[in-house]
């Protein structure tokens, strides 16, 4: 299956629900207020979120259609979703000088953090950046092992400590090693214990403090990894991590299979944070640039171009 097919799979739950909820609306005699209300409700029920749904409704209302056939409605939905997404589609840039550009990767356990770091490492390596992975989730031995496996898979070195080691110290050593070896990007895994906000905050601010001693601009990026299958929960995670961790951008994972992809639109409208990339599978090549037009069309149930 091509990645685009998988991506469409990730939006099929949202798209099917939307199509069901829109059934019959376009056959009504006029595009009046109650039909617009129903369209807005259909959008909200498809995980797109109240803010984005309202914006789309207003856009349809402004166009002053008398009637709108199904194809016309799908086209305008695709366009409006694309308009919401376009401003946040910003591929990750490696701009930090002196090197390394330091990226902290945060998110709750199981969101796909470690897998995303592997995929990100592969993506950077393909662009000829030298990459060092840092196993900063020292809370669980399995997380350290998992990152090492990814390092081997993509041919990137991994700096790790023992289970329970101080992550800030490890990150410090990571920057030193990257500097000594002329490595461009240091990608740091972190523990995702959201159930203990103050501990998370403490740990992240300690990492920042230590990094700041080496380079005041580091970390250059703080990427929050979100699991698209968790719907509304993913949005709550953005709220919490934004307050505690100074998130610079998002990567949404698991946008294949059973994702509730509409949540991506809700996140874009509500937070306006850059979406650096999306994950559409479990292998190294499954991190993809975020394409607002393809996503708009997938949600609206239009065929790919
Ligand atoms: N289908 C699919 N599965 C994914 C994707 N990204 C990650 N996964 C799977 O999601 C599960 C959790 O991913 P991890 O990378 O271990 O998540 P984590 O956030 O690092 O979790 P901890 O190591 O427990 O902190 C694994 O089974 C991954 O293979 C994706 O884009 N698509």
UniProtKB/TrEMBL annotation:
Record's catalysed reaction(s): GTP + H2O = GDP + phosphate + H(+)
Q: Which residues form the Signal recognition particle SRP54 helical bundle domain?
A: 7-85
Keyword Kinase on entry: no
Which Gene Ontology MF annotations are present? GTP binding; GTPase activity; signal recognition particle binding
How does it sit in the bilayer? Peripheral membrane protein
Superkingdom, taxonomy of origin: Bacteria
Domain AAA+ ATPase residues, every copy? 99-282
User: Entry's InterPro entries?
Assistant: AAA+_ATPase, P-loop_NTPase, Signal_recog_particl_SRP54_hlx, SR_rcpt_FtsY, SRP/SRP_N, SRP54_GTPase_dom, SRP54_N_sf
Can you tell me which residues bind GTP? 107-114, 189-193, 253-256
Q: Which gene encodes it?
A: ftsY
Catalytic activity, EC? 3.6.5.4
Q: Where is the SRP54-type proteins GTP-binding domain?
A: 100-301
Source organism per UniProt: Sphingomonas sabuli
Assembly, per entry: Part of the signal recognition particle protein translocation system, which is composed of SRP and FtsY. SRP is a ribonucleoprotein composed of Ffh and a 4.5S RNA molecule.
PANTHER family the record matches: SIGNAL RECOGNITION PARTICLE RECEPTOR SUBUNIT ALPHA
Pfam families (UniProt xref): SRP54, SRP54_N
Q: What is this protein called?
A: Signal recognition particle receptor FtsY
One GO term under biological process is: SRP-dependent cotranslational protein targeting to membrane
Query: Keywords assigned by UniProt?
Result: Cell membrane, Cytoplasm, GTP-binding, Hydrolase, Membrane, Nucleotide-binding, Receptor
EC class name: hydrolase
Under Gene3D superfamilies, the record lists: P-loop containing nucleotide triphosphate hydrolases, Signal recognition particle SRP54, nucleotide-binding domain
